[in-house]
Design goal:
single chain, alpha/beta, TIM Barrel, eight-stranded parallel barrel, two-stranded antiparallel sheet, 18 helices, 11 strands, binds 6-O-phosphono-beta-D-glucopyranose
């Protein structure tokens, strides 16, 4: 009650927005398992990890994961126990459309999501559905994935088919989860599958195609479905707040913020759209220095700028942590070779997380709730206070039911969110990542984010609430009481 109702608000008593929704999230490849059951075809993770079994540090994969394909009823029961208003989950493209195209629908896949959605609604929990949380069909990857311009049509067709299938019951749609991780880690680098490591241009081509594909899904919904289905649709952008190391690094920190998330947010939410000026100028300059005839950043035409601009009803915000940024002279002034991913090398910054931000054992997520406040203030001021849906926030740990560090983390970050609301941020929803332990993309099962612990050594995958689950139950009850 103290956290929520205002005991320690910096602004006296708190007013909670009546429409603030609370929920928890997962993603298909990370929890579903059943990787080849009932007609599902391979996505890029199935394919790549089967060919490279030690891609994740513990040499694990998502073949079975938390087995939610079979255990979805228990998942919904957990959500009911938590008292959430919504559940954010993602659709597996290849479970629904094994050919990758919409000519052939896999009935079993449709049935699985119908059952999940119906079970949620029966329990008064709204489905918040992500169309794409990284598990690209392998067939489309063979055709280039996000590097193929046709992805705009493929994604648009997929989105349309999904709106037809589930839009009568789903009122919150997220087009794409975290473009930066997809394009930067997967195309510009070799961190995330497809791990192409094509530094220089590929991540910028991916960026452009992804923005256009997202916008296509938005316009399809807006023009063909919104009036009948009455839902909202938005993109989720991952944000890290970069704070300058000192006064001489203010520009470096701004570059870091722009190259991380401004490149996606600015074309959609800024006053006039298009990429941030700093990015266009920097990449053009560095391309010239390299002797290239044109910028490695493919430009957006006036029509494309218009098409992307405003193509999101809300700002879907994933936020975990912050970092300190400073200028990296060697990449800022020169660009001799593609030694790093293009965003990083073009932006010319370095960053670090001071050890004093660490709580508990984990150094994956560091504790800096003030960075969350700064992001929310930035959105208020620079993006005209567009409504925000916080679609992920959470803390990584190494297991155990008494997760005091996670409790500390949630307390700090939820408090920062409430302060932002007091300061005028319009926040629609808050989502804890994650409902349960799952396959973490790089760290397999060695790292976990779950409010519920999953025992991956037991074939029945039992789920047990952690202390943080009880903490959030109390917080969520307090939200209801304080709203009255
Ligand atoms: C987000 C993703 O980037 O962070 C999730 O949307 C992911 O799918 C979560 O599990 C945690 O990521 P990490 O980098 O700590 O494994």
């Amino acid at each position: 009650l103290v956290v929520v109702c205002g005991g320690y608000s910096r602004h006296g008593s708190r007013r909670l927005p009546d429409d603030l929704l609370l929920g928890a999230a997962t993603a298909s490849y990370q929890i579903e398992g059943a990787w080849d059951a009932d007609g599902k075809s391979e996505n890029i993770f199935d394919y790549a990890i089967h060919n490279q079994p030690c891609y994740a540090i513990d040499c694990s994969n998502g073949d079975v994961a938390a087995n939610s394909y079979y255990l979805y009823k228990r998942d919904v029961e957990m959500l009911r126990e938590l008292g959430v208003n919504f559940y954010r989950f993602s659709l597996s493209w290849t479970r629904l459309f094994p050919t990758s195209f919409t000519d052939k629908i896999n009935k079993a896949g449709v049935e699985y999501y119908n059952n999940l959605i119906d079970e949620l609604l029966k329990n008064n929990i709204q489905p918040v559905v992500t169309l794409f949380h990284w598990d690209m069909p392998q067939k489309l990857q063979q055709l280039g994935g996000w590097l193929n311009n046709n992805i705009v049509d493929w994604f648009g067709d997929y989105a349309e088919a999904v709106f037809v299938l589930f839009g009568d019951r789903v009122k919150y749609w997220i087009t794409v989860n975290e473009p930066f991780q997809i394009c930067e880690f997967g195309y510009g680098n070799a961190i995330l599958i497809p791990a192409l490591n094509l530094t220089g241009e590929a991540d910028y081509i991916c960026t452009k195609n992804l923005l256009l594909a997202h916008a296509r899904a938005y316009h399809v919904y807006d023009e063909l479905f919104r009036s009948k289905q009455d839902g909202i649709i938005f993109i989720t952008i991952s944000t890290e707040w970069f704070e300058p190391a000192d006064n001489s690094n203010i520009e470096a920190a701004n570059d870091a913020n722009q190259f991380w998330w401004g490149i996606y947010a600015h074309p959609i939410f800024s006053k006039h759209g298009d990429y941030p000026r700093i990015i266009k100028e920097r990449v053009a300059l560095k391309s010239r220095v390299q002797g290239l005839p044109r910028s490695r950043l493919p430009e957006l035409s006036p029509d494309e700028i218009k098409y992307i601009h405003g193509s999101s009803d809300l700002f879907g915000l994933n936020h975990y942590s912050s970092a300190i940024a400073y200028r990296n002279a060697s990449t800022y002034y020169y660009y001799s070779s593609f030694t790093g991913p293009s965003h990083d090398a073009d932006a010319g910054y370095m960053s670090y997380k001071p050890p004093e931000w660490k709580i508990g054992e984990s150094d994956r997520t560091m504790y800096a709730p003030w960075g969350f406040s700064k992001i929310l203030a930035y959105i208020r001021n620079v993006y005209n206070n567009v409504p925000v849906f916080i679609t992920e926030n959470g803390f990584a740990s190494h297991g155990g039911l008494v997760d005091d560090d996670r409790v500390t983390y949630y307390r700090g970050y939820i408090s920062a969110m409430l302060d932002a609301i007091d300061e005028g941020s319009y926040i629609i929803g808050y989502t804890a990542w994650s409902l349960m332990d799952n396959f973490e993309w790089w760290n397999g099962y060695r790292e976990n984010y779950g409010l519920y612990e999953v025992d991956f050594n037991d074939t029945s995958r039992p789920r047990t609430p952690r202390k943080s689950a009880f903490f959030l139950i109390v917080i969520f009850i307090a939200f209801v009481i304080c709203k009255r």
